[in-house]
Specification:
The chain has about 290 residues and is α/β, with parallel strands linked by helices. It is about 55% helix and about 15% strand. Helix 3 packs across helix 4. It is globular, with a radius of gyration of 20 Å. The protein starts with a strand and ends with a helix. About 45% of the residues are buried.
């Protein structure tokens, strides 16, 4: 009998992972109640079995995967725990949000108090599809239950038996990947203001091979996710501060992504951001 996985919620990453688990033989369910038309379209295109509400997902699924904006992760966990308690069911809850280990500890307590097994998870890479390689880091005593699920283009890696370890990996890697992209956005918008974009890009491309070709798409896609990344920067800052390093750096990064989110390009969806455009057009949109 195949396992049933519930996705909360089926946005770009949720629909991508759910599609991979579905291709691996799992039954995948979700609800799009209260969600945007875009989310509903992504869930339908992924072939999910759509249920009327969250209670139905919690009641039906063996494993419920939480995938939402970082600042909504504790509320999602509370709603999952309350739904499970009210219905007398106990699915495994896997939180795959970009959150700090401290936030994970609070969410794990919410779940275990409701009698639910809990898995901490973190995602590295774009949503899985043919030609991509998405890593899912997992930790916790029940992590192997999710890691054992077949999923094409997904590399599940158990990094420890303690919740928080997988999210710590994410906080460290995302600080480099998204911090670097924030630096690029700041530098190139500044270069545009001083009419020296070509010289700056040529210099950077000598150190970072291929940057001149991939930069327009990299900045455009990042801008379309900027609103979501603001909360992630706060989580990274909290993680670094708890480790004895300086949290101010990534509080400033949160300000950068807030600025980007308010730009013309920040209003685009990832699908719109994927449309080919010149670096000059991207920088013009970021500067608005």
């Amino acid at each position: 009998m195949s396992v049933c996985i519930g996705i909360v919620s089926p946005g770009a990453m949720g629909s991508g992972l759910g599609r991979a688990w579905r291709r691996g033989g799992a039954r995948v369910v979700a609800t799009v109640a209260g969600r945007s038309p875009r989310t509903a379209t992504l869930a339908a295109e992924a072939g999910f079995e759509l249920l009327p509400d969250l209670d139905a997902v919690v009641r039906t699924a063996d494993i419920v995967v939480s995938l939402g904006p970082p600042d909504q992760a504790p509320d999602i966990a509370s709603r999952l725990a309350e739904s499970a308690r009210r219905q007398g069911v106990a699915p495994l809850v896997a939180d795959l949000n970009a959150i700090s280990p401290a936030t994970v500890e609070r969410i794990a307590a919410t779940c275990t108090t409701a009698g639910l097994d809990f898995v901490d998870g973190a995602i590295s890479g774009a949503p899985p599809r043919d030609g991509t390689h998405t890593i899912v880091y997992l930790s916790g005593s029940s992590a192997q239950r999710l890691a054992d699920r077949d999923a094409p283009n997904v590399d599940a890696r158990v990094v420890g038996d303690r919740p928080g370890q997988a999210s710590a990996v994410k906080m460290c890697t995302a600080s480099v990947y998204k911090g670097f992209t924030a630096l690029l956005a700041q530098a190139m918008v500044t270069a545009r203001a001083h009419d020296c974009v070509d010289a700056v890009l040529a210099d950077l491309a000598e150190e970072f091979a291929g940057l001149d070709e991939r930069l327009p798409g990299q900045l455009a896609l990042a801008a379309s996710k900027a609103r979501r990344w603001v909360g992630e920067m706060h989580e990274i800052a909290a993680t670094q501060g708890a480790a004895g390093t300086r949290p101010e750096l990534f509080e400033a990064m949160a300000d950068v992504w807030t600025m980007v989110a308010r730009s013309r390009l920040g209003a685009a969806t990832p699908e719109q951001a994927a449309a080919a455009r010149s670096l000059n057009d991207v920088l013009a949109d970021l500067a608005q």
